[in-house]
Amino acid sequence: MPVVLTVWCLILVTFILFSGCLFRYVRLKQYYGQSADSEIKATAPGQPDVAGVVQRFARMIQMPTVSWTDKNKRDIRIFEEFQAGLEAMYPLVHQHLTRRIISPFGIIYHWKGKDSKKKPVLFLAHYDVVPAEDKGDEVWQEDPFAGVVKDGVLWGRGTLDVKCQLLFQMETAEFLLSRGWQPEQDIFFAFGGDEEIAGVEGASVMAALFRDQGLEFEFVLDEGGVIATDQMTFLNGKAAALVGMAEKGFVTFAISAAAESGHSSMPDKGKTAIGHLARGIVRLEIKPFPAHLDPVMTSMLERFVPHVPFSLGMLFANLWLTRPLMLYIFSKNRATDSLIRTTQAVTVFRAGEQENILPSEALCKINHRIFPGDTVETVRRRHTSTLTGLDLRVETSDSWPFNDPIPSGDVDGPAFNLIRRVLAITHPHVIAVPYLVNGSTDSKYYADLTRQVLRFCPLELTSKDVAGIHGVNEKVSVENIEKGLNFYIELFCHL
To answer: Which one from 171, 174, 194, 195 is the annotated catalytic residue?
Structure first.
């Protein structure tokens, strides 16, 4: 083939390729650039008393419903006090809704709707919190259980994770009941008291009760995503509402090595238990799980197309071509890297009691957040293969329940679109996108009771705010509380 013809063929192919990419960019920009503002209108019957809301929230924070891994350290009376406190704070809810206390770690409310033929909806939250201890040089600026309001900010453990969600749901019900409002379909609330330690006594039991009743929900809404204000730097200051549509799985493997015990002055070179295990850990850590973009993350990036510069929009719109580049970019940041692969982290290492004794066993625990497409079993098989020849045992840890990834709901379905449209009313500056939750929530217990599990809390949080979740100085602004409550009121009114 003549050189000139080859050049013209390359030019033609390049033109066709660019035209195709440009066409897809324009199409996605138009499709996702349509405003949701005009789709539904605000219908909230008035405004709630925000000062009263904050006062009740502070009261919730003052009850230290702390979940400890060592369950013997839990103060059961505090959990019972919290349940009783809800009755005092929300008299209309307890007058009109049916309440069922499952245990100190579970409570269910049922709000009868007008149309019993419609599928009910289920709202989840948990009222337990992690311990609130100082961490090294980081100390609490305010008592984490005093419920202090200072300069328009409420401080305390649980303000973000996740008594705020319970507050929004109860306040919305109380407010709407005071206006004589009744939902079209039945609404259920299921509040857990042990989510931070796996939800075995709370959410697991409540989900089983719903299952026994043969209930199927139109959708389930739990915690998981928030409104990220500064985490997406490519949005040029715009905030993104990360609506969790899928959730990673969870498993911890205990990997152990055995060797002959003895005096440390006469080690068997290269055959100590710790040495065996250390070599295994190195093998695993230098071999991360492969990276992928699942459909949820693909949809998220495509929805950003109208809101980013042209060059980035072309990349997001044409992932069929640019996927390897996007995976490379995501892998360079530990937060985004966790969204494209199964993660593994050595979190526990135990071996030896005394410096002059060779231990007979060394054990580590490796925690995994399982990416959609992987399973507990595929992770186990991969480790077994990687560790071939090292004589190590690989077993699931019995200290925490494990589960495969939760399948995604419909990223274009009515439940996601309802949240997107309500956000257009209460948070018009926010871009709503589907999101893969890399943590573990109570919603996993309810996944077989609905086709749509969503994970979202309507709080606008900076990266510094997010660091307070399970960290020190957890707090939330009064403005954030007001906006979050307005979101829930509108959401209920548009069910």
So the answer is: 195
Query: What is the b/e burial string over 34-53, where b = at least 16 CB atoms within 10 angstroms of the residue's CB?
Result: eeeeeebeeebeeebeeeeb
Phi, psi of 450 (to 5 degrees): -160, 160
| Tokens 């109860």, residue located | 170
Catalytic residue, chosen from 128, 174, 201, 474, is 128
Give CA separation, 371 vs 41, 98, 296, 495, in Å. 38, 38, 12, 31
- Is-contact 151 36, C-beta < 8 A? no
What is the SS3 assignment for 32-100? HCCCCCCCCCCCCCCCCCHHHHHHHHHHHHCCCCECCCCHHHCCHHHHHHHHHHHHHHCHHHHHHCEEE
Q: Which two tokens stand for residue 51?
A: 């000062």
Helix (H/G/I), strand (E/B), else coil: 230: coil
β-strand partners of 258: 361
Q: What is the mean pLDDT of residues 418-435?
A: 95
Contact assessment for residue 393 and residue 249, using Cβ atoms and an 8 Å cutoff: no
Q: Where are the alpha helices (DSSP H) in 387-439?
A: 414-426
- Residue showing tokens 């069910």: 495
Q: What is the pLDDT of residue 4?
A: 75
**Of the listed ranges 161-170, 235-244, 255-264, the one predicted with least confidence:** 255-264
List 66's β-bridge partners, or say none: 129
- Give the integer Cα–Cα distance in Å for 322 and 325: 5
The type of residue at 146 is A
Identify which of 206, 188, 210, 182 has the alpha carbon closest to the alpha carbon of residue 122: 188
Quick one: 215 exposed, middle or buried, by C-beta within 10 A (0-12, 13-18, 19+)? middle
Residue with tokens 């939330």: 476
- Sequence-separated (6 or more) residues with CB below 8 Å from residue 359: 259, 261, 272, 273, 274, 351, 352, 353
- For the cut 70, the answer to whether the pLDDT of residue 150 exceeds it is yes
Nearest-angstrom CA–CA distance, 103 and 421: 37
How far from 308 is each of 33, 227, 357, 387, CA to CA, in Å?
11, 18, 60, 44
pLDDT, position 442: 97
86 — phi, psi (to 5°)? -60, -40
Known catalytic membership, residue 195: yes
Question: In Å, how far from its chain's centre is CA 104?
Answer: 24
Clarify whether 230 is annotated catalytic.
no
Question: Are 78 and 64 spatial neighbours (Cβ–Cβ below 8 Å)?
Answer: yes
Cα–Cα nearest to 36, from 396, 421, 481: 421
The sign of the CA dihedral 77, 103, 176, 41 is positive
Structure tokens, 124: 């989840």
